[in-house]
Amino acid sequence: MLNTNPETVRRWIRSGKLESIQESRKGGNVVTKKMLDAFLKTSPKYAGIATGLLASPVGLTTVTAAIVGGILAQQLIKNDEIKNIHVNTAEIKKLLLANIQSSRENIARKKKSIKHLQEEIVAEQERIDKAEKLIKELEKNTDSQKD
Q1: Is residue 123 scored above 80 in pLDDT?
Q2: SS (H, E, C) the chain
Q3: Gap between the Cα atoms of 73 and 82, Å rounded
Q4: From CA 47, how far away is CA 40, in angstroms rounded?
Q5: Mean of the pLDDT values across residues 3-28?
Q6: Average of pLDDT values for 123-130?
Q7: What gap in Å lies between CA 66 and CA 1, rounded to an integer?
Q8: What is the pLDDT of residues 31-71, one digit of tens each?
Q9: What whole-number percentage of the chain has pLDDT above 90?
Q10: Which residues contact 46 (CB under 8 A, 6 or more apart)?
Q11: What is the pLDDT of residues 91-121, one digit of tens each?
Q12: Domain interval for residue 17
């Protein structure tokens, strides 16, 4: 989209200039529209692109490709120009459904982790309560021995 070498984009991500989501090392980095907008607004070289690119159908198509992992981006860009764009909506739908399924699996894993952490918190709180109760009993016995 920005006529930039992919390694440059990777460097931006590694340096923190461009935010991305990496669900797995195999899946690569995903840059959402919001993340791209933030980057474009803070990069003087690309500041003018932010509104024009994303407002056009071509820009929207390219952003959609970027959101689903950049798989279609290579098909859309040739010789530094986007020519004869034909969007295969079935492929985009397939990619989006795969992304949704992956997100659902991540949510399920995270909910399971949360449940496990909540159980650990309850157990830890019970240990604290028992320890505090023992302290009170010790203090009570110490006070009664002084009398």
Answers
A1: yes
A2: CCCCCHHHHHHHHHHCCCCCEEEECCCEEECCHHHHHHHHHHCHHHCCHHHHHHHCHHHHHHHHHHHCCCCCHHHHEECCEECCCCCCHHHHHHHHHHHHHHHHHHHHHHHHHHHHHHHHHHHHHHHHHHHHHHHHHHHHHHHHHHC
A3: 10
A4: 5
A5: 84
A6: 96
A7: 9
A8: 888 888 888 888 777 665 554 444 444 444 444 445 444 44
A9: 26
A10: 2, 39, 40
A11: 788 888 888 998 999 899 999 999 999 999 9
A12: 6-87
Does 139 share its domain with 82? no
With tokens 């949510």, the residue in question is 107
Q: What is d(CA 78, CA 106) in angstroms, rounded to the nearest whole number?
A: 35
- Residue 1, domain member (yes or no): no
The tokens describing 5, both together, are: 């070498």
23 and 53 inside one domain:
yes
Residue in the structure block whose two tokens are 């003087």: 44
